[in-house]
Design brief:
The protein is an alpha/beta fold and 240 residues long. It has a domain of 166 residues: P-loop containing nucleotide triphosphate hydrolases (Rossmann fold). The chain is built from seven helices and ten strands. The strands form two sheets. Strands 6-7-8-3-9-10 form a six-stranded mixed β-sheet, with helices on both faces. α3 packs across α4, α3 runs parallel beside α5 and α4 packs across α5. The protein is globular and about 55 Å long. Adenosine-5'-diphosphate (ADP) binds next to β2 and α1.
């Protein structure tokens, strides 16, 4: 597909049973003659229940990797496994279902719906499930309470500060009780107080055994992780 030849994986990933596994993953973006190697031979295993921070400067490939881990996109070469399933083997419908059931996203640009209240935004990922709406609403309100927004449940995103919107996005990401949460720079543009809040929210969610992969260049956040994985120019550096 790319005219770029990519070496074989060295097979450094041995188990595919982790929460998330990348095995020799390359992501090449190509338009015409312009080629960007966003990820080069990335192998990584995230254990179930682990909280991994992916750090690296802007343009290093963090969002690209999160998108692949979340089955929003497929690698150019190599394989991604989520909860033991190889994403490449999933059809569209299966893939959507896998994502809906198992993965919560906190997008960097949040993607809240402006004409829905905080509660309705949080309910959204589960509306199609055909629940009794009042029960779902109670769940959403409860989650908003957990992220310290109990007083703002009826507010629209444009009535909330960025830090508050960030917490709505986190509540929405976990409303399905996903096994895996992927968050793209969830503390970018937050002050210390809101950053501490986000960190304590992530910690309390971990108690339920959720696996987290969080892209960040915020030391305050990466200090809270079980493991920090560094990426530079699309290449994994080391993990510690
Ligand atoms: N859809 C795309 N088309 C072309 N290049 C892309 C695309 N998405 C990302 N890139 C490039 O891939 C590299 C990694 O981007 P990204 O994963 O967004 O980095 P980060 O999230 O670490 O800032 C950058 O050079 C970026 O310009
Ligand atoms: Mg990014």
């Amino acid at each position: 597909m790319t005219g770029v030849s990519l070496p074989e994986s060295d097979g450094s990933v041995r188990s595919r049973d982790g929460a998330l596994v990348c095995d020799g993953v390359w992501k090449i973006f190509q338009r015409g003659r312009r080629i960007v190697r966003a990820l080069s031979d990335v192998s990584l295993e995230v254990r179930r229940g682990e909280f991994v921070c992916l750090v690296g400067s802007s343009g290093s490939g963090k969002s690209t990797l999160l998108n692949l881990l979340g089955a929003l996109d497929l690698p150019t070469k190599g394989e991604i496994y989520g909860l033991g399933l190889r994403y490449r083997d999933l059809g569209n419908e299966q893939c959507n279902r896998f994502r809906r059931t198992n993965i919560g996203f906190v997008f960097q640009e949040l993607r809240l719906i402006n004409h829905l209240t905080a509660t309705e935004n949080v309910m959204l990922p589960r509306l199609f499930e055909g629940h009794i709406k009042s029960e779902l609403m109670n769940t959403a309100v409860g989650l908003l309470g957990q992220v310290d927004l109990g007083e703002r449940v009826d507010h629209f995103p444009y009535e909330l500060s960025y830090g508050e919107q960030q917490r709505v996005a986190i509540a929405r990401a976990v409303v399905t009780k996903p096994k895996i949460v992927l968050a793209d720079e969830p503390t970018a543009n937050l002050d210390n107080k809101n950053t501490e809040r986000v960190i304590s929210i992530l910690h309390s969610l971990r108690a339920s055994g959720t696996t987290f992969v969080v892209a960040t260049h915020d030391d305050r956040l990466s200090r809270a992780a079980d493991r920090v994985v560094e990426i530079a120019g699309g290449v994994l550096q080391h993990s510690g």
